[in-house]
Amino acid sequence: MRVLYFSRDYTPHDHRFLFALAGTDYDIYFLRLERGKRQLEDRVLPEKVKLIRWQGGNSPFRWRDVPAMAINLRRVLGQLKPDLIHAGPVQSAAFLAALVDRGPLVCMSWGSDLLKDADRSFVYRWITRFTLSRSTVLVGDCQAVQRKAAALGFPVERVFLFPWGVDLDHFSPLASAHPPRETTPTSDLRTRLGWQNSFVILSLRSWEPIYGVDLVVRAFATCAAELPELRLLLLGGGSQASLLQSIIHQYQLHDKVYLGGQVNQVDLPRYYRAADLYVSASYSDGSSVSLMEALACAKPVLVSDIPGNREWITPGTQGWMFPAGDVQALANGIRRAVRKRETLSAMSLASRRLAEERADWNKNFKVLVHAYQTAMQLKR
């Protein structure tokens, strides 16, 4: 079977799907909608995956280019003749696929496309409904996505849910006995920074408004004035870089915040292991992959109280939650974690246990294969 995997860009999430698909008997082709400014994947495509060259994939996506891209995409599909198209997010790659093709379409929601973008405007809502109406099945990562799709008229029985999951061997509490070659000397990060006796918070969401990283830094600044042992590992990058830098400068946090930039997947587990608490203030998420990575590395968590997170975190068991957008509540959560650090070891065990039960990528991927098979049967 010839499968066309059509995504907005090439991110670590896309690599995870393409690497797994390369291990199947399918012939896999990859179509990239844009080359944007978001966090990209630095690993090469799996050898079995064939990259399709076309009009898109070279610059940021622009709505005014949709007519020309649709014409070009129709030509590509006519030449490739895929048996099935796997496309997402809903309002970009999946929308284009729905515009030009009536073959089996596995529409993949990336979480915020349905939970947030679908309500941005009348136009976005129409695009979302149109794309779902042309989709054979929908793949999502949380029950909130399923509920939203149902509210938009998509049949519940054609929704396939699975949290994308992580590699539990790579993201683990202990480093592998035979680790891959390090590209960054982070194995002894706390010692190198002089943070051996510190309480270390980890934030690694993209520096975009939807992820609330500015709230994390503001809450940290409030707590750091009271708790001298507090430190922040701040990874990532994005459009709010100048804002975050100004907060750090305003509160004179330079010696308490480590700016690690974009970290590749090989080195990332070492940052989780260096932290005492994982924090995310996101305003919208499905089943967050970084949350699953933190759980797999046995980290207690402090995350925003949003539907996607509620499906994972039991307050007081794997960590705590706070109202989204409430910087004071976030600060109180940080204080609570520091005060109750003697309870963190039990939370660490609970986090890893939850990851083993629900976040194993090798098990969860089988749901996608089942979605493909169902889409083919339904189309026949």
Broad shape: elongated
- Architecture of the largest domain, CATH level 2? 3-Layer(aba) Sandwich
Radius of gyration: 21 Å
Helix % is 40-55%
Physical arrangement of strands within the biggest beta sheet? 3-2-1-4-5-6-7
Structure notes:
With 380 residues, this protein is of the alpha/beta class. The chain has two domains: 2-165 and 361-379, Rossmann fold (3-Layer(aba) Sandwich); 189-358, Glycogen Phosphorylase B (Rossmann fold). Helix content is 41%, strand content 15%. The chain is built from 15 helices and 13 strands. The strands form two sheets. Strands 3-2-1-4-5-6-7 form a seven-stranded parallel sheet, sandwiched between helices. α9 (241-250) links the parallel β9 (230-235) and β10. α8 (213-224) runs parallel beside α9 (241-250). The chain is elongated, with a radius of gyration of 21 Å. The two termini are 14 Å apart. Mean pLDDT is 92; it is low at 177-187.
